[in-house]
């Protein structure tokens, strides 16, 4: 079974192909002192995401994901982060990077960029990614 089919079957992470397709966000434990939910929280939705490359084939090659997320419900959130998992062509995870939304109460729609930590050959190895949304009330 391929990685995307397994993730869809398990239903615990939001699998995102380079085309930007998203199954839906999941909720992880909130920061210390915040209430924790047992169920996935659909309160944040990834509207679109794209895998970007710059300086491909050079030692300066870099890879990042750009996208837009929005609050999907009326719930006011105090904490929102988007975690990107980067994978190679064989489905092996290369990196995990988190982008925090600075002030999720200021707006209901947010742009984000999440950069892969490696450059050059490491960045060239990135073939796919997944996004997870973590929230707290």
Describe the protein's architecture and organization:
The protein is mainly beta. The chain has a single domain (3-136), classed as Immunoglobulin-like (Sandwich). It is built from 2 helices and 7 strands, in the order H-E-E-E-E-E-E-H-E. The protein has helices spanning 3-10, 121-124, and strands at residues 15-16, 44-54, 62-71, 79-87, 93-100, 109-115, 128-136. The protein has a 4-stranded antiparallel β-sheet with strand order 1-7-4-5. The longest helix is centred in the first third of the chain and has 8 residues, at 3-10. The radius of gyration is 15 Å and the shape is elongated.
List keywords for this structure.
mainly beta; 137 residues; 3-stranded antiparallel sheet; 7 strands; Immunoglobulin-like
Q: Going across the biggest sheet, name each strand in turn.
A: 1-7-4-5
Number of domains: 1
The percent range for strand residues is 35-45%
User: CATH class, please?
Assistant: Mainly Beta
Main sheet: strands, sense, barrel: 4 strands, antiparallel
Which series of helices and strands comes N to C?
Answer: HEEEEEEHE
Layout of helices and strands, plus pairs?
Layout: H1 3-10, E1 15-16, E2 44-54, E3 62-71, E4 79-87, E5 93-100, E6 109-115, H2 121-124, E7 128-136
Antiparallel strand pairs: 1-7, 2-3, 3-6, 4-5, 4-7
Quick gist of this model?
This protein is mostly beta strands and 137 residues long. The chain has two helices and seven strands; from the N terminus they run αββββββαβ. The strands form two sheets. It has a four-stranded antiparallel sheet.
